[in-house]
Amino acid sequence: MGDRFYTIGMAGHIDHGKTTLTKALTNIDTDRLKEEKERSISIELGFAPLKLKSDVKVSVIDVPGHEKFIRQMIAGVAGIDLVMLIVSADEGVMPQTKEHLDILSLLGIKNGIVVVTKIDRVDEELLELVQEDIALEVEGTFLEDAPFVFVDSLSKKGIDQLKDVIEEKLSDVPSRDAKGAFRLPIDQVFTVHGQGTVVRGTIYEGAIQEGDILEILPKNAKVRARQLQVHHQKQERGFAGQRAAINLGGVSKEGVKRGDVLVSTQHYATTSTIDVSLQTLKDLKYPLKQRGYIKLHLGTAEVYGKVVFFDRNELEGNGDTVLCQLRLDEPIVTRRGDRFILRRPSPVETIGGGFVIDPNGEKYKFGEKTVEMLERKREGTPIERITDTLKEEKFLSAKELQKHVDLQEGVFTESISELKDKNELIETEQGELVLTPIFNEIVELLSQDLAEFHDEFPLREGKNKAEVLQSLKQNYPMKLLEFTFEKSVQDEKLSKRGQFVALSSFEPHFPKKWAKRMEQVVGELDQGGIQVEGWEHIIGRAQLPPQYQEDLKHYLLRSNKAYAFDDKHIVLAKHFKAAVENLQNNTEDEFELQDAKAVLNLSRKYLVPFMELLDRLNITVRKDSKRQWKKREYDQWINN
């Protein structure tokens, strides 16, 4: 895949020109709400595609600058690859400039550009002072060495230069992992007339394609991706770094909300107790007390809860990093390493931020031993490093895995053995490794897919193997899917029937709703005997749905319950076999068409296809005007 996908975020104080700059860059006004137009402020996140000279695909997120809408701001920048810090030339650094910069730093954003807007409103001397003011503010942050670009969005002055700087910066930013498990934190939910529920969000990792079976967490609701759009353009696939809107089947608008997460795998924890590494801001107005009430922002989720310290009863704002625990009022979806922001609900202020050490925290005793334990967790045990890597990469050789986790050979080998002993790791004959939960997850997805197929097409032998694996290959390596499939066949969970795959417990059968009408069809075939009426006439009288008309015919032929004389006539096996046995008993080793007519008393309309079918079954062989019985083949067939 040659294309690279990135998401750029705007940040900065209210009325510093973020939305106007977005329009200057993309020709799209991201303020779409009536209230936004009336108040001339951004309330919700705005999105627009940015076209650059290269093949890079960029989405721009315009976030609200007002302090009341900080939740939307955090949700918007949580998944970005590069940020533009917007400061207007006529006002300089303002309170939300500082808070946004703090939040960006705490979220671990590494790449940025400082954009000074409204430059036509000030003279050269004031512009220099503003630049110095901004430089002092970003000193010691990730923006310390960031390029400055000066623009006026209304006259388009500096816009082309800004696009060039964006392109240059993105050339050094690695694209997101499209191989990992799909994850999209949802930030918008709405309905489209005639289509149903649609969710929007930035794809954090992995890839998605139409038809994928996904899960909404923390609700554990299974859904199907019915349609996918990227910036209002229909797409079959979406990749990490893209902004996507997904039409979901299987859920109502009320069944999903902002903060939920759409995933393709079960390896995300749904939890209300998380161990975290928290870095505080230096200028907190008020200390944070033990079990103080907090508001957690993680991805697009906003959840209230309490903070629990293990080495203090009060936290001062001095920029220290503290290992502690968050006990939340409702569950969230997260995993180790996810970044978060912590705010105080009242009086409102940003406390700090950090990353998740363990999404499945437990109750610990107050004291230094707990802090030491959390420090060990932060570093990660060899087992955790191995499992975290395999959750991401899914399927690696031992050599590749050891390179990823950077462990000494003895420690690595011991850890692998421990995981195998606990039945948490599976190794193939070729030496490739997969976590048992991931293997079981694929088996479950395969089984679920086949169960749905059998329910929809009960007359069919199974589903084409290529189609079964195709639906999963966006989220799992094909080699892993092939291994899982073959092992599931060996374990008799699945069965292989030629090119088709089925659940081992499944046998083709008449669907309950239409069983009587199908039995009626078989009854008419039985009454017709060897000179049966045309299939279309019989099936037409049964008034079966078109899908089942063709499926029933193939079911009867495939299961050898019937044979096809030609495209128009099929005859039940018992009548055909009886006729063949009668013919064989009353003819010589060689016989002609007239001999068969004398025995069977069939018209040419039925006799010629009858004889040609004998040839196709390899029971007879034609030599000029005569046919010869193949005695051994006939005996095998008649007794089968």
Automatic annotation (TrEMBL):
Listed InterPro entries: Beta-barrel_SelB (IPR057335), EF-Tu_GTPase (IPR050055), EFTu-like_2 (IPR004161), Elong_fac_SelB-wing-hlx_typ-2 (IPR015190), P-loop_NTPase (IPR027417), SelB_WHD4 (IPR015191), Small_GTP-bd (IPR005225), T_Tr_GTP-bd_dom (IPR000795)
Domain Tr-type G, residue spans: 3-175
GO annotation, cellular component aspect: cytosol
GO function term, MF aspect, one: RNA binding
Record flagged with keyword NAD: no
GO biological process, one term: selenocysteine incorporation
UniProt KW Nucleotide-binding keyword: yes
Location in or out of the cell: Cytoplasm
Keyword set, alphabetical order: Cytoplasm, Elongation factor, GTP-binding, Nucleotide-binding, Protein biosynthesis
PANTHER family recorded: ELONGATION FACTOR TU, MITOCHONDRIAL (PTHR43721:SF22), ELONGATION FACTOR TU-RELATED (PTHR43721)
Function summary: Translation factor necessary for the incorporation of selenocysteine into proteins. It probably replaces EF-Tu for the insertion of selenocysteine directed by the UGA codon. SelB binds GTP and GDP.
Protein name per the record: Selenocysteine-specific elongation factor
Species in which this protein is naturally found: Anaerobacillus arseniciselenatis
